[in-house]
Structures are given as structure tokens and as C-alpha cells.
Amino acid sequence: MSALSTLEAHWPVLVVSGILEAVWAAALAASDRFRRLVPTVVFVVALAASMAGLAYAMTAIPTGTAYAVWVGIGALLAVVWSMVSGAEKVTRVRVLLLLGLVLCVVGLKVVA
């Protein structure tokens, strides 16, 4: 496998890990300080998988880029989930800022 294809194989893992970051954050909030079993189990499993995927991605993607993309995806999805669930208000400014975050994450992929 060439270096380029090895690098490209790590990006989908990083994206899934970022998605799992949002999952564990939502599960943590729903766990009620680890007093609810199902959200607590989802939190632990998603956290472990997210960290493992991030660690794997960092073997081919520079740490700063991988971490920024991972956090960006997780933060974006966590905020979107909060807006969809009604926990946070949807405003034009928030949506524009989230679009800016998406552009930054995509930009990091493009220049990587």
C-alpha cells in the first residue's frame, strides 16, 4: 500500500471517531452522572471507540490536524444535536459559525 493510500485510509476512521465523540458527549449528558445504565454504557463504548480511532488516525495524520478535525466534527454534531433536541436555540449567527467550523475542518483535510 502506498503512503498516499495509507493516509487516505485513516481519514474515514478519523471522521467516524469524530462522530463517536458527539455520541459519547450526548450519552454523558444523558447518563445523569452515571446513574442511568444505558447512556453510561453508550458513553463508555463510544468513548473507547472514539479514542481508539483517533489514536489510529494519528499514526498517519499529523497530531494537530487529526485532533482539530476530530474535535471539530464532535463539536459540530454536539451543537447540532442540541439544537435539534431543543436544548439550544437555533440562530442565524450560530448556523453561520457552524458553517465556518465545517469549512475549517474541510480546509484542514484539503491542505493535509
From TrEMBL:
Q: Provide one Gene Ontology cellular component.
A: plasma membrane
Membrane topology classification: Multi-pass membrane protein
Task: List, alphabetically, the InterPro entries matched.
Answer: EmrE-like, Small_drug/metabolite_transptr, Small_multidrug_res
Residues annotated as transmembrane: 12-30, 37-58, 64-81, 93-111
Record's subcellular location: Cell membrane
The answer to whether keyword Membrane applies is: yes
Q: What is this protein called?
A: Ligand-binding protein SH3
Q: What's the source species' lineage? A: Bacteria, Bacillati, Actinomycetota, Actinomycetes, Micrococcales
